[in-house]
Amino acid sequence: MNKLNKLQLHGFNNLTKSLSFNIYDICYAPAEQQQAYIEYIDEAYNSDKLTQILKNVAEIIGAQVLNIARQDYDPQGASVTMLISEGDSPPPPSMNSQSPGPLPETILAHLDKSHITVHTYPESHPDSGISTFRADIDVSTCGRISPLKALNYLIHSFESDVVTMDYRVRGFTRDISGKKHYIDHNITSIQEYIAKDTQASYQMIDVNVYQENIFHTKMMLKETELENYLFEKESNLSGEQKLEIEKKLRREVMEIFYGRNFRRKKIKVADPE
Length: 273
Description:
The structure is a single chain. By secondary structure, this protein is an alpha+beta fold. The protein has helices spanning about 35-45, 45-60, 150-155, 195-200, 240-260, and strands at about 15-30, 65-70, 80-85, 115-125, 130-140, 160-170, 175, 180, 200-210, 215-220. The strands form two sheets. The chain has an eight-stranded antiparallel β-sheet. Strands 7-8 form a two-stranded antiparallel sheet. The radius of gyration is 21 Å and the shape is globular. The chain has one domain (about 15-260): 4-Layer Sandwich (S-adenosylmethionine decarboxylase).
């Protein structure tokens, strides 16, 4: 991989780097349990807990938190907006390298000023028993640092069945000769910033527009255990019920991943042993 030479800039590096990160967590909760599921999600991801996740993101990318606005909603959902500023220390040389960032157990790094936001959307299908929780997170930075180092932490902070990520570098910065630079780090794919063991657990698709510095990656969990998707005990279900629930869950995941509705006959799940 070719490394870009360090640039001596005229004034502030005002490149804007924006990461939009969306996760979907799928669950089966029959009609009599749907309200309990919504209440569980609202408690698990209320504004206080989302604020802590964003504080950790800010710490990973080295930001100083200037202001926090947060709100829980009735009947469900929460939002947090965080204004951040650049830290005092220069970023480490590895910050913009194409390599994964830390997992939740490790916090480090640095950032230039901008903002981080999160919004949640829990919802349930009225008839099928499928409930889907969505969290939308945006990390926008100005300057030398890319928010991509927060990806590993974000993926592992939620139960992520489907993940969609968009990364874009906008604007330009000048070097001392007056030449414009529209990107200041190498990037071939968002996938380079995700740990290999995480990549192995997901089916992944890229759609990139390199000449516009636009990068898009989608992830869909490969292996699923039914018990991880039930809001009730698996032992209470017959083999036929389990098979039908697996079909519903798989259909929901695939429709979200591919962005379109599928006919029932297209979704196949192996019969239980």
